[in-house]
Structure formats: C-alpha cells, structure tokens
Amino acid sequence: MLNCERTSVMNFENAIRGARNPMNSWGRMDSSYDEEGNFVLGPNDMSLARRLRNAGSDHRKYIRQIFVSVDITAPLYWWKEYDTYKVSTVANSTSTMHKIHSKPFSIDDFSHDHMTPETLEFMNQMVEYLEKVRNRYLETKSKDDWYDMIQLLPSSYNQMRTCTMNYESLINMYFARRNHKLAEWHTFCDWIMTLPYAKELIAAEEDEEA
Q1: Closest listed residue to residue 25, CA positions, set 44, 52, 50, 42
Q2: Is there a contact between 208 and 199 (Cβ–Cβ < 8 Å)?
Q3: CA-CA-CA-CA dihedral for 188, 190, 195, 197, to nearest 10
C-alpha cells in the first residue's frame, strides 16, 4: 500500500526563466498562468524545455529547480528502498520512536493488501499482541515493553513522511523503479506521471504532434 497526498509543485516559472539565461533568450518566453493559478508552458518554452531535458543532465539543470512536496504513506519496507535516494531529497517522518504507543494498533496500520488469507490471520494475531504490549507499556512505562513494540514491529507498518524532491530526482526514480516487482513503486511512478508536464519532462515521451 502506498498513498500520495497534498502534492505541491513549485518554481516552474523561475526554472524556465533560468533555462533561458545561457542564451539571454528571455524575450522568447511565452508561458503564462491560467485562471486557476497553474503555470502553463507556451510553445517556445515547451520546445526549449524538451530539448534541454533530452540533452542530458548537464544541460537540463533547470529541471533541478522544479520542486515537489508530497505526503507519502507507505510501509517501512518501501521506505528502506526509497532511502536510497538521498541526493536532492528531504523527508520529515512521523516518529515511531516517540509516538508508537500513542494510539491503538489496528490491522489498517499495516500494509496487508497482498497477504494470503493464512498470513493475514497470523498478522491479525501479531497486531493483537502488539496492542497487548502497548497497553502494558501505558501502565508500566517499562522500557522492556517499549523495546518489545519497537523490535517486534513488522516492516509492513505504514509510516507517513512529508517529502521534497525535484524533477531530476523523479527522473532517476521513475526510470529505476517503474518495472520494480513491488506494487508500491508502480503506484509511486503512477503518481509521478500525474505531475505537471511529467510526460514531457520526466518520462520524455513524445506525443503525436512532436
């Protein structure tokens, strides 16, 4: 299970203007904002943006100045793979260490969408036991009980992080993970393709008019 919420894409206008700095071609800028405040690339800017994107990372520096912020809820086993991408990414997570005992455990705190019925039954037993330990910790404040929760916690536990990244980071993630066997990566790559101009600037797909 993976869920992306509260997505914001920022700095498109400044990034495109910066892309024109090397040739002092600001007079050719033809982008604008629509009535909803979305930045809309004009034909001239789109052509330049695509050419630079396809010319390679040395030439598409403007891509690194298009920023994305999103809240991602995903299991710990997915976050371990996401943490490979440390360059140009920042994440601020909910705290397992400080807040794991603050609410009752339920099966919905864990990704279980691909479990077989037998495994799901065992997982429910695990959740019941974690809740038993949590209640005991609330009474005793024993560090032994706290360690039981932390060390027993399955990697399917869902954690929410507020993440920031740029379009260059997303290019790397998209092409490295779009065919990954984890369903969560497919969901993440599908989310990437919902971002403004992801088709042209991240996936570098050609449309019928190109």
Answers
A1: 44
A2: no
A3: 130
Place of tokens 């807040």: 99
Amino acid at 62: Y
pTM of the model: 0.92
Q: Answer for the pair 197, 167: CB distance below 8 angstroms, yes or no.
A: no
- The backbone region for 171, taken as left when phi is positive above 0, alpha when psi lies in -120 to 50, beta otherwise, is alpha
The Cα 20–Cα 105 span in angstroms is 53
Name the token pair of 4: 């992306």
Beta strands in the chain (DSSP E): 3-10, 32-33, 39-40, 67-75, 90-93, 158-166
Q: How do the pLDDT tens digits run along the chain, 210 residues long?
A: 999 999 999 999 999 999 999 999 999 999 999 999 999 999 999 999 999 999 999 999 999 999 999 999 999 999 999 998 877 789 988 877 668 898 999 999 999 999 999 999 999 999 999 999 999 999 999 999 999 999 999 999 999 999 999 999 999 999 999 999 999 999 999 999 999 999 999 999 876 444
What's the one-letter identity of residue 203? A
Whole-angstrom distance, CA of residue 147 vs CA of residue 150: 5
Judge residue 102's burial from the number of C-beta atoms within 10 Å of its C-beta, 0-12 exposed, 13-18 middle, 19 or more buried: exposed
User: Among candidates 17, 38, 41, 22, which has minimal Cα distance to 30?
Assistant: 41
**How far apart, in whole angstroms, are the C-alpha atoms of residue 22 and residue 62?**
11
